[in-house]
Design goal:
Aspartate Aminotransferase, domain 2, binds pyridoxal-5'-phosphate, Aspartate Aminotransferase, domain 1, about 375 residues, seven-stranded mixed sheet, five-stranded mixed sheet, globular, 14 helices
């Protein structure tokens, strides 16, 4: 059967009226324990909530359907999802990761490889020869993020997956920025897709969560579920319910946000107070053609700008916005603006005059007006 469209999946994947009551909204099952049969069995599949709950199963099946994988495992945060994947790294094994990426993940990679006696190789994934060199002595994990945080560089998923597989690596893509609405890494051969569900999947800045989707390796999926039980840190039933509820409107939100981001980026690109705009949807972006091919559903709704001037001038612009709220994070219905270098702290490679914008679902012309007055 033909794969359903994204909005159809967002509404219907792993969701149907409850058999018992006919309730359309999924019930939240808070029970920590589940009844056994007279013979001691668990014919309904649930025993104890650390091991699994109906709400978690529904969320995981839904995410697998959206990404085109065989299954998923949900965790208490994006970094907890990363941690489950990093558990694959043995002593002496290599993690090949990008020079530029979410700073929380990069810090986590450095710390985890140090603790495990594994090897961290940071490379510029825009350079195929650099990736080939990094994996030439083999690799356990190749971890890619695209578009990247905060410079919105775009990496060639098909090429990186092929190089990773030649080296025998499991290839991982952080799809938080793009979401399965814009980009489906499994279709380029990526083995594992990780998400900070805190961002677009949640979409309302009110739930912390993470997930790993597995493309086709059932043993890998079982290992991730084993890690959920071992670490004892699955996502709670209410948070799973919130996420599954939010995903019903994921494609509507993300498409509107992408449209808004393109308008905002187009406006900023012509403004004399702006030195540079980083957004893959602009024809001037270095990897615009690659982005157009790899992100058929849209270019995402995060963009960065370098303001003409220094850090103080960038902070001044952020201080003057009225609709864009000064806060970290992204992916919610409300637009945010952030001076990125100061949240990343010492050692940040981010330019001091850079502001990162997460475009929400407000009317794009209102957002443009807000930025016009803030930049004046
Ligand atoms: C926020 C984020 C994470 C970390 O997720 P948390 O839910 O905050 O733990 C990982 N990757 C990317 C790209 C992110 O934006």
């Amino acid at each position: 059967m033909k794969r359903s469209g994204i909005n159809t999946l967002c509404v219907h994947a792993a969701h149907s009226p409850e058999a018992g009551s006919g309730a359309l909204a999924e019930p939240i099952v808070l029970s920590t324990t589940f009844e056994r049969d007279a013979d001691g069995g668990y014919p309904r599949g649930y025993r104890y909530s650390r091991e699994g709950t109906p709400n978690r199963a529904a969320l995981e099946s839904c995410l697998a359907a959206l990404e085109g994988g065989i299954g998923a495992a949900a965790f208490g945060s994006g970094l907890a999802a990363n941690m489950a994947v990093l558990d694959l790294l043995g002593a002496g094994e290599r993690l090949v990761a990008p020079l530029e990426g979410y700073y929380g993940s990069l810090k986590q990679f450095a710390e985890v490889t140090r603790q495990r006696g594994a090897v961290l190789k940071l490379v510029d994934f825009r350079e195929p020869s650099a990736v080939a060199a990094a994996v030439s002595e083999g690799a356990r994990l190749v971890w890619v993020e695209t578009p990247t945080n905060p410079l919105l560089n775009v990496m060639d998923l098909g090429q990186i997956a092929a190089l990773g597989h030649q080296a025998g690596a499991v290839v991982v893509c952080d799809n938080t920025f793009a979401t399965p609405v814009c980009q489906r890494p499994c279709s380029f051969g990526v083995d594992l897709v990780v998400h900070s569900a805190t961002k677009y999947l949640g979409g309302h800045s009110d739930v912390l969560g993470g997930a790993v989707v597995v493309r086709e390796d059932a043993a890998l999926l079982e290992r991730l579920h084993a890690w959920q039980r071992l670490a004892g840190s699955p996502l709670a039933a209410f948070d799973c319910w919130l996420l599954r509820r939010s995903i019903a409107t994921l494609a509507l939100r993300v498409r509107a946000q992408c449209r808004g981001a393109l308008e905002v980026a187009g406006f900023l690109a012509t403004h004399p107070a702006v030195a540079q705009v980083f957004y893959p949807g602009l024809a001037s972006h270095a990897a615009h053609a690659l982005a157009a091919a790899q992100m058929p559903g849209g270019f995402g709704a995060v963009l960065s700008v370098c303001i003409v001037g220094d850090a103080a001038r960038a902070l001044e612009v952020a201080a003057r916005t009225r609709l864009f709220t000064r806060a970290t994070s992204l992916g919610g219905v409300e637009s945010l603006i952030e001076h990125r270098a100061s949240i990343e702290g010492p050692g940040s490679r981010t330019p001091q005059n850079l502001l990162r914008l997460s475009v929400g679902i407000e009317e794009p012309e209102d957002l443009v007006e807000d930025l016009r007055q803030a930049l004046a």
